[in-house]
Specification:
Layout (H helix, E strand, L loop, with lengths): L2 E4 L6 H12 L2 E4 H14 L7 H10 L2 E6 L2 E6 L2 E2 L7 H10 L3 H17 L2 E5 L2 H5 L5 E6 L2 H14 L6 H17 L12 E4 L5 H14 L1
Parallel strand pairs: 1-6, 1-7, 2-6, 7-8
Antiparallel strand pairs: 3-4, 4-5
Helix pairs in contact: 1-9, 2-4, 2-5, 7-8
The chain binds 2'-deoxycytidine-5'-monophosphate.
2'-deoxycytidine-5'-monophosphate binds next to helix 2, helix 4 and helix 8.
């Protein structure tokens, strides 16, 4: 059984998808990490987010693969494990900008579809239910208000001892939502057959249990 979880940045997709995968014995696939690895390659090579020719050229030179170590996904970029370098705001914003490119998407969608061919997956992203796995048995559109998502991100940064500015985080989330939802290629949208789950007032356990209920009915 394949489960597609789409939604905006900060809705809790990866936390939820990991727990659902564990319960079902499926593999968790974080597709955002693949777009982030491409973005990291571009940052490291000094490519600007509006230099389309260089972004498309990068698709030929950035080899991305996924391996699993103790059940956790690791992203390999040209032979190097870059997993630890992917979760910064700079890489996230570059990924949001460069993922509008059709060539970047085609390369990563094909990798994602191959991963789901041989095993049951819980895959999260923006276009999983609409483009990558249109036949997924369960599709969820997981969202939360901008305010809730900004609060969660703020708390996460403060807990890590990093500086955090709530208004700047909220503005960043709004910008990212706008880019992800209004791009020409595979914009973020709820698939017609996806179930909407708004996690603003739900605990992690409640969201996981709602999704597990959907898998029982599928
Ligand atoms: O989920 P994330 O924040 O790690 O994703 C980073 C960016 O990658 C996101 O802003 C848009 C892009 N992305 C995408 O276009 N399609 C996906 N399936 C996953 C992520």
């Amino acid at each position: 059984m394949n489960i597609a979880i789409d939604g905006p940045a900060g809705a809790g997709k990866s936390t939820i998808a990991k727990l659902v995968a564990k319960e079902l014995g499926n593999i968790y696939v974080d597709t955002g990490a693949m777009y982030r690895a491409m973005a990291l390659y571009m940052i490291k090579n000094g490519i600007s987010p509006d230099d389309v020719a260089s972004i498309e050229d990068a698709c030929e030179h950035a080899d991305i693969s996924i391996i699993y170590k103790d059940g956790a996904q690791h992203v390999i970029l040209n032979g190097e494990d870059v997993t630890g370098e992917l979760r910064t705001e700079a890489v996230g914003n570059m990924a949001s900008s460069t993922s509008v490119n059709g060539k970047v998407r085609a390369k990563l969608v094909s990798l994602q579809q191959k991963l789901a061919e041989t095993t049951g997956v819980v895959m999260d992203g923006r276009d999983i239910g609409t483009v990558v796995l249109p036949n997924a048995e369960v599709k969820v559109y997981l969202t939360a208000s901008v305010e809730t998502r900004a609060k969660r991100r703020y708390k996460e940064l403060v807990e890590k001892g990093q500086e955090a500015d709530f208004e700047a985080i909220a503005a960043d989330i709004r910008d990212r939502d706008y880019r992800d939802m209004n791009r020409e290629n595979s914009p973020l949208r709820q698939a017609d057959d996806a179930v909407l789950v708004d996690s603003s007032d739900m605990t992690i356990e409640e969201v996981v249990s709602a999704i597990l209920d959907l898998t029982k009915k599928a």
